[in-house]
Fold:
Amino acid sequence: MRFLGRVGVVAALVVLGGAAPAPGVDPAADQKAFAAFFKEKFPDVKPADFGNGPYAVNAAMRKQWEDIMQFPPYDFALDEGKTEFETKFANGKSYADCFANGGIGVRQDYPYFDTKTGQVVTLDLAINQCRTANGEKPLPYQTGKMASLTAYMAETSRDKPFDIKIPDDPRARAAFAEGERYFYTRRGQLNFSCASCHVQGAGQRLRGDILAPALGILAAFPIYRSDWGSMGTIDRRFTSCSAQMRSEPLPPQDPAYRSLEYFLSYMSNGIPITGPGTRP
Amino acid sequence: MKRWIIAAALLGLAGAAQAATQAEAEAALAKATQTETDAGKTGNRWLPAEAALKAAKVALDAKDWDKAATQADQAQALAARAIEQSHEQETAWQDAVIR
Structure:
């Protein structure tokens, strides 16, 4: 039976188009080691503060951020997101009808693994699934209304810790393994992986930026980024990171990006939601 | 004067020897396109390879065979390296995992 389970994991990975999983994938053990690594690397940072990204590890940036937060640049998105969230669809239903607890305070539970469809479901994907199920067109994933909606929903989850579950399903473990593989795989002309910046380089400067630790890195999304001059979702960040490595980005919500989000969010279990956030 | 004429003629011959023909440019582009397609199959296309390939096509349309061949060769080299990287990383990524 155990053998059949392993075969299932490998088969699911092949379906996902990934390489073979690392031998003995153990999400719980990996999460424990991940958190311990960052605790050792940044001994003065309280675990809950990792959700604040670079501001948790650099005092000068934190001071600037605290000044910026007197007038948070994402406030307009919160207003737009709340209005959009509360606006009924043409059929009279609304986003609240699609989510547990009416969509309030649920951000920390995303992404989750849907055992019916065998897919990782991110909050952004769930929003568009809700729209299409109610006869509305899906929203573009990287900015605009999607960023505003997820900003509002994240704000209703502030201080709730990430609570990502990996069900006892070989496909869920395969999705986690695929996300882990993607995170550590070097790609692009610069030969970088996600880990190059957010594990090995965490807290260091890359030109003008302080690199955020991978632990808790998605807790602040969506973010207002000064570099962008607008709000952006996790998809926007993933695609721009890929381009910065000089690697062709995947389409938003590609299964590999969703697996990456699943992996990173699971690794951040226990870190409170801080989104929406702001970054340089 | 005679020496200058001979030198100029030799330089001209050298230049002619380096100039790419249409057939060479087209062959270089076909090879680079195939390699870039193979890189895509590994899920790892490099943006500079894409840019060089695009530039090669533009140069070919403009009948600038030299530039088309040069850009195609560059795209070919970048795409080949992308494939090597993908193969290396099939197992190498595991060495970076925090355990």
